[in-house]
Amino acid sequence: EIRQYNFNADSIVPVREIEKHTGKLPKVGASVKGSNTFDFSKINSIEDLLEQIKTQPISEERQHLVEVAKFLSQYDLNSLQQDAVVIEDLNAKGRLTSRKLAISREYVESQDTTNDEIADVAIHELMHAFTVKDLDKYYQTNPETGEYELKTTEGVPSHVLELHLVYSEYLKKGNYDRKALELFKENYKIIKKDNQERMAGVPRTQDSNLVNQANMNIASLKSMEQAEFLKIYAAYNIKEFVAIALQDKNFLMSMNNIEYKSSNKSLKDKFVFALVKMFKQMFEGLSEDSLAQAAITKTLNFISSERSLKSENKSVSSQSTSPSKTSTPAV
């Protein structure tokens, strides 16, 4: 990808800016001075981060994040291939790449950043990681058109097909600028090809004026109101749609206003349902763990209520034993 959406970012970030920072900025470690109490000197992996979420003070409103961390901690998460958690200079609160989960240096050092907010960023980025991993098994980028498409409709699990239908409904009914989307696609394709040639060290095949104009056109689109641009970017492909719905509360809530087909369900409801179904497929113990299901659903909905998760689930008299630490996600 040439550009990538970040958690609460103000813009879509050019990949050359990502390359400039990736792996080259020192970890903050014990120098972090924000109001949160996370000990970043002890956080090197996703497992370490989950442990901090479980052990650091988290408000009653965000206890569902702790429950998600507890559930995920029972699994071997090496299959995610995000082998590091780092603190970097970002223009967003958090960012997920193919190799790591990064959290903004400025964000964790801010006196305004609480434990709740660090946990919120971390858990949503992990949700994103699981979702991308699952989608990549069934989708591929068409080398001719650059479109991210289903490889085949045969053998595709129901939750992926449901996500595909949700995305298709958004394309039909979403309140985004269709002409702007086509302009974005056209210019993005030019930039992507130029970037691939640059990275491969081969001669550029496109006129430099064409590439420069494409960059200016994209910059012009990005200059519009952020919420409007995200609606356009979400329509680019299903991967970006899922990423933005997972990471931008306002976008997800806007899906409440879109009816799914001719049902009484909103697009947001169907989106969350499909993702919970996905996680049930990935984690065998989730179907029997009502508390974890409620926690994941609550997290996906960006819900913050004054009641504790446990009080909402006090009717659950017992929980089945979850898989051991050595278990791996069923993916």
Structure overview:
- This protein is mainly alpha-helical and 331 residues long.
- It is built from 14 helices and seven strands.
Spatial sequence of strands, sheet with the most strands: 3-5-4
How confident overall, as mean pLDDT? 79
Distance between the termini: 24 Å
Specify Rg, calculated over alpha carbons. 20 Å
Spatial shape: globular
Helix tally equals 14
Unreliable spans: 1-33, 304-331
What's the count of strands? 7
Annotate the secondary structure layout.
Elements: E1 3-4, E2 13-14, H1 15-21, H2 46-55, H3 63-72, E3 84-88, E4 94-96, E5 100-104, H4 105-109, H5 115-135, E6 139-141, E7 148-150, H6 158-173, H7 178-200, H8 208-222, H9 226-234, H10 238-247, H11 249-254, H12 267-282, H13 290-300, H14 309-312
Parallel strand pairs: 3-5
Antiparallel strand pairs: 1-2, 4-5, 6-7
Main traits of this protein?
331 residues, mainly alpha, three-stranded mixed beta sheet, two-stranded antiparallel sheet, 14 helices, 7 strands, 49% helix, disordered N terminus
What is this entry, summarized?
With 331 residues, the chain is mostly helical.
